Amino acid sequence: MTAAHRVASSLLAFIFHPDVAFMLCYGAGFAATHQFGQGAAGQPLINLAAPLAAGFLIRNGRSLSPTDALRLAAVHLAVAAGLGVGLTDLAWTLFQNLATVACSVATFARLRRSGFISSEVRMAVAVTIAAATGALAGAPVGAAAGFGSGATLDAVLTCWAAAWVGSSLLLGVVLTRARSDQPLADEFDADEPKPALWEAPAAACLIATLILASVGQGRPEIVLAASCAMLWFALRLGLFATWLGAFCFSAALLAYMSEGLWPAFADAAEPMRAELMRYLALALLAGPSVLVAAHGHDQKRLRRILAYRAMHDGLTKLVNRVRFLEVLDAATAKAHSRGSRFALFLIDLDHFKSVNDGFGHQRGDALLVEVSARLRDSLRSTDVVARLGGDEFAVVAPLTNVDDGMKLAKRLVETVNQPFLIDGVSLLPSITLGGVLSPDSEGDAQRLILLADEALYAAKAAGRNCWRFSSVAGEAEPVQLWRPGVEGQLAFDTVYLD
């Protein structure tokens, strides 16, 4: 590694350190908030600093500690000095942000602990509640900063609406980032309709065009069409894209309104009342799309969970008999049509009943889980291992030659035949394996299972903890039997049993 690479690696490690990233997020959000400008009630048009800091803490399961508050204050002072923010405004803004962050994080943590956040829809609701609570804590501070002791109810409500809309949208973006269902049946994701590459830019362009048209023609009702276009994000592009689209949609409208480019709001007789209404309008326009996206996410996730449970064993998480037979049928058809080889192994865990009877079903289940993990770890990603029921397992493994099948069988038997300690009891599991090769062995999937079963029973008769192969081709040959720990050269011979 060169010196430049080492410096770059050290710099990245420093930037992505949790405490440093926390301060950088707040600093960037505070700078962007300042550039957005202020509303009629003296509050930021959209506050990005507080929700970024709150989202960071929530994602990392942290509360706002005194040390974190000091870090935020230091960053706040440094950025404010660079932007030329006055001392009075500086103190009010810092106090408002700290109150918003603390209340948002505490509210979300309370909802999480209570078990409220059990779905993406509830997560969206929790984000909204947390943002509203944080805004409620910071709104009086923001109104007092703009109007002093003469802060009016409209000023407080406007500050609250501004903080609520900005925080809920940005918190949603932060908290839905990289929320995936990787543990859930990736093989079933192929059945889900995937959006085309052009859909995201097309939807974004459509929304941008509608926003520009509504501003240019002074007709706010065109924004309603933009909110309908947001359903494109919700139904096709996912929850994160919907949150992000709603945030960009709202930020663009606020930017136009801050420059007086929207006559419907710029010419209002009561600017503060008009500003309050536009924040509530933004919330109503963005909210339905987010809820639709969250509901759609929950439905897709539920389908994946049900599909996973229908095709996997609940204890070992291996595929079950139904899924295994589908894989075997597909492999057999491919072998017959293209001549590609694969091995079918049927595997029995030796003396499992005595473990259940002697040490209890809990230890027996733990042994099944451990053996399943050892089998899975011994195979490639292209191989499929299944639990057929009880102590019975099966493997379908694509191969290029016969020797590979023999070596794989040897590796499986050796890997399982290692000590396993569970609750003070040392067990030495072993498996007996019967295999068959296709298309060397002609026949359909059921015929292959029968041949592998015959090989399995022959291996059991030979003393277990060993393997044998069978085929419908050729004639019977002397058997080279192998067991773990037996010295001597292993001869990779196919055993014919018919």
Automatic annotation (TrEMBL):
InterPro entries cross-referenced by the UniProt entry: DGC-Regulatory_Protein, GGDEF_dom, Nucleotide_cyclase, Rev_trsase/Diguanyl_cyclase
Keywords: Membrane, Transmembrane, Transmembrane helix
Domain called GGDEF: residue spans: 340-472
SMART domains named in the record: GGDEF
Signal peptide (residue range): none
Stored CDD domains: GGDEF (cd01949)
Listed name of the protein: GGDEF domain-containing protein
Organism: Chelatococcus sambhunathii
